[in-house]
Amino acid sequence: MKLLLEHAHVEGIRYYDTYRKHGGYRSVEKAFKMTPDEIVEEVKKSGLRGRGGAGFPTGMKWSFLAKPEGVPRHLVCNADESEPGTFKDRYLMEFLPHLLIEGLIVSSFALGSHATYIYIRGEYAWIVDILEQAIAEAKNNGWLGKNILNSGFDCEIYVQRGGGAYICGEETALIESLEGKRGNPRIKPPFPAIQGVWMRPTVVNNVETLAAIVPIINNGGEEYAKIGVGRSTGTKLLSVCGNVKKPGIYEIDMTQSVEEFIFSDEYCGGIANGKRLKACIPGGSSVPILPANLLLKTAKGETRYMNYESLSDGGFATGSMMGSGGFIVMDEEQCVVRHTMTLARFYNHESCGQCSPCREGTGWMYKILKNIEYGKGKLSDIDLLWDIQRKIEGNTICPLGDAAAWPVAAAIRHFRDEFEWHVNNPDEAQNRNFGLAHYADPIHIPAGA
Amino acid sequence: MKFSAEKLNKVKEIIARYPEGKQKSALIPVLHLAQEENGGWLSTEAMDHVAELLSILPIEVYEVATFYTMFNLKPVGKFVFEVCRTGPCMLNGSDNIIEYIKEKLSIREGETTPDGMFTLKPAECLGACGYAPMMQLGKHYREHLTKEKVDAIIDECRRNAANNN
Predict the structure, then answer these.
(1) Is 3.40.30.10 the CATH classification of the domain at B79-164?
(2) ipTM exceeding 0.90?
(3) What is the H or E stretch that residue B113 is in?
(4) Do A326 and B129 touch (CB under 8 A)?
(5) Mean predicted lDDT score pLDDT of chain A
(6) How far is A412 from chain B, CA to nearest CA, in Å?
(7) Dihedral sign, CA of B141, B147, B151, B152?
(8) CATH 3.10.20.600 region(s) of chain A?
(9) Which of A144, A380, A443, B27 could in theory staple to A139 by disulfide, Cβ–Cβ 3.0 to 4.6 A?
(10) Where are chain B's structural domains?
């Protein structure tokens, strides 16, 4: 089932004429015959949930937008994709730029945004050119600018490059950055829907979310909601990396089991180089890592599926999250301690420094993990790490604190013996990795459970 | 540092994207232009010039330039190798690539070769996890790196530099 990537492999789909020939911009024609409120209703009916990571219902987010008389409103597209393991938005923008532009025009009309901004991570420099070319083509063909399709609605889309800061993917940090400031998240409330960019009501949505508006309007919200399972409606893009045979971007309707997704030839094609599966971070680096056994089956021994509900089954004790769809797979030879150390370094590097639990805590977590990884750790360090992550989680202005704490917590929760082995065998741990151990063993279900 | 006439027009075009009086919003895009114009880094003089163009205080520029990792506050080589080393790249051997570059160019992380040609700047996740290991070189990504590819990239840079002189 492909909604977003249906035409991804058509030659020249990046350019307007080809895109239009394959049904492009039909949703704009349809949307301009509807009222903005009717469009918001369709999005609500679709059950679409934010594709950036938090999974908040998009229609509800849109309905919170304040509409005070005489105050301009803005739609901002969050293209700051920086969560390790996540590279799906890049794919959409690079190969299907018009799909995003089309979604942005419909969404801008629904929200009443006459100046819409795409805030893109600074490193995606070549994609800025691709987007600006697509915007120019759309404008030349009458889909942007003044009085679009004689509707009386004016809209411009601008691309803004960031400066290389993960934190700017957080919506209030993104807004600060768009205003030309450091990316320090704001205290909420007020939420952006009331006071966002330049203190005006603002909606910030992820690239994939806004692209999904196109099939929702074309086919109707109810049709979209029929795809998927339960509250996981529609299709989701997964970006797969790590040790699988076929890393890359996959669009799924969220009915696949995790096992099918990893091992079938239609998707990842199994683990590369004939190795065995050890662990996986299923939704971007911030979400909990799971050992193979808990990844493929829930703690109750049921099959785990690739959707919001099933991936989080068992809470953080035995489950994880769908997150951004950054699917990081580790084979039997990978070291969980080293991988966790690189993530701790990442969060330490990316902490904006505003809240002390995150600023200081991420630094200490990195230092301690580095000691353990390089054979200088103590057993008490493992408890100290646990203690630090507990003190970061929930104690910061924005979710970066949680994002930094969770990977460390989950690594210790599920791979404590690997950390202990590093501490107890410091020399050996420099030369070889812990291996698969028991992580792929069948799950032991306690009696009476 | 002064902007060329062409770049100045670009600055004006960027400022026009924002509401009246909100020209500070142009700061990050204009700093990217200034960095390009100034040989890949931002001198105090360059930042002061940007402040003047946007009618904001120099400190407003410094605090932003020091926050975002893409802005270099010291001179860098003609070619900057920004090699990603975060988890997903690490799983696919980015450590070996970084070691190889260090050995081949005889520099440490963050250093520039004495001829001013190459800088090695380890980077955190650049969003190319499925095509790891990778580096950013100028505007573009170089993906699926191997030692042989690194050799070819270094040769390519040397050829380009020679052709431009």
Answers:
(1) yes
(2) yes
(3) none
(4) yes
(5) 96
(6) 17
(7) negative
(8) 232-331
(9) A144
(10) 5-65, 79-164
Q: Distance, in angstroms, between A449 CA and closest chain B CA?
A: 35
* CA-based nearest residue in chain A for residue B31: A163
A83, A86, A92, A93 alpha-carbon torsion, rounded to 10°: 40
Delimit the CATH 3.40.50.11540 region(s) of chain A: 16-226
Contacts of A342 in chain B (CB under 8 A): 85-87, 90
CATH topology of domain B5-65: Arc Repressor Mutant, subunit A (1.10.10)
Assign A444 a pLDDT band (cuts: 50, 70, 90): low
CATH class label, A16-226: alpha beta
* Contact assessment for residue A3 and residue A235, using Cβ atoms and an 8 Å cutoff: yes
Q: pTM of the full predicted structure? A: 0.96
Share of chain A above pLDDT 90, in %: 96
Buried b (16+ CB within 10 A) or exposed e, A205-227: bbbbbbbbbbbbbbbebeebbeb
Q: Nearest residue on chain B to A183, judged by CA atoms?
A: B67
Fold classified for A336-431: de novo design (two linked rop proteins) (1.20.1440)
Interface of B with A (CB under 8 A): 17, 19, 22, 24-29, 31-32, 54, 56, 60, 63-64, 67-71, 85-88, 90-92, 124-132, 136, 139-140
In CATH, what class is A232-331? alpha beta
CA atoms within 13 A on the CB side of B73: 10
Q: From the CA of B137, how many Å to the nearest CA of chain A?
A: 10
Interface test with B, best of A181, A347, A408 (most B CBs within 10 A): A181
Same CATH topology for B5-65 and B79-164?
no
CA distance B32 to chain A (A): 8
Question: Tokens 């420094």 identify what position?
Answer: A353
Mean predicted confidence (pLDDT) in A362-387 = 98
**Which DSSP category does B136 fall into?**
E
- DSSP classification of residue B127: S
Give the count of beta carbons closer than 10 Å to the beta carbon of residue A11.
7
The alpha-carbon radius of gyration of chain B (Å, integer) is 18
**Considering only CB atoms, which chain A residues are within 8 Å of B92?**
241-243
Contacts (Cβ under 8 Å, ≥6 apart) of A341: A366, A369, A370, A372, A373
